[in-house]
Amino acid sequence: MSEQSPWYRGVTGYQWLVLFLASAGWVFDVYEGQVYSVTRGQMLGEILEAPPGASAIKYYGDLFLGVFLVGGAVGGIGFGVLADRWGRRPVLVLTILTYSVFSGLTYFATELWHVAALRFLVALGVGGEWSVAASLVAEVFQGRSRTFAGAIFHASSVIGTWLAGLAAMAVGSHWRYAYLLGVLPAILVVAIRAGVSEPQASKLTSASASIRELLVDAKWRNRALLGFALAAIGLGTFWGVTIAGQDLTEQLLRRTGADASDASTKAKFAFSIVQTAGGGLGLLAFGPLADRFGRRRAFVGMQLAALIVVPLVCYVPTRYCTC
User: Fold this and answer.
1) Model confidence over 170-181: pLDDT tens digits?
2) Would the pTM count as exceeding 0.90?
3) Which of 268, 252, 270 is nearest to 317 (CA)?
4) Residue 163 sits in which domain range?
């Protein structure tokens, strides 16, 4: 393919199908993760019988978020290993069923340990789905199209956060229904089983791939650890700063006189709709930027931009603009 030709020239119908199905799984994957971010106040307030803004709600909210992140890491590694042994398609199906079923069961949560256990189990599927779906897209697309397909795949996460925010605002204090909607992704299983073939690349590596071999071989170990460190920077920023945007907005609104209900709804909108739209634009922009300047320069540029923007977001705003 010529460097001057559009990246999508030569992309087959099957490749588009894989990108669509992988992205659909990622959309609901993100929904399962972010629906907790926008409903945990109502959920934990009901279970703890505590008023809005109680310190116990924040404590357990952050604690269970940590449980979710641990579960995501375990699921990503565990299901990733299984995908190399069993194949991408069956494990992708298993991960989607995992997070769908345990999200639906959250409807029945009445105790703190229920929330902790279910968030961990949902996260196993969420982390596993991302690792398998991202690998599937990378294996099906080649050359320049891989960069753009990866950007589209990750940018589809915006839709998942939007859906979570809209669901949370629609159900209000009836948070259980937002988790019941999390059962719907199980429908994707039928489409994936019917439309996705096992990539040849995964078949060739499945017999020998293992975490041990990845870490023992110096060539791959160094690359793996570097990739881990780079990913940790981005994910640490996302979960430590981006998710905190909702709390920062709600605190600002309460300081300026908004009542608890209004502050909660506006904070959800600011986090799940407005802030996420900006994140989506950044994700979509990364493909063209990486194609134009190279992946390393694009990555460094994004990190430098974040270094500037994050302090501005955390300390500069003084009012909630509705204009």
Assistant:
1) 888 899 999 999
2) no
3) 252
4) 13-209+243-315
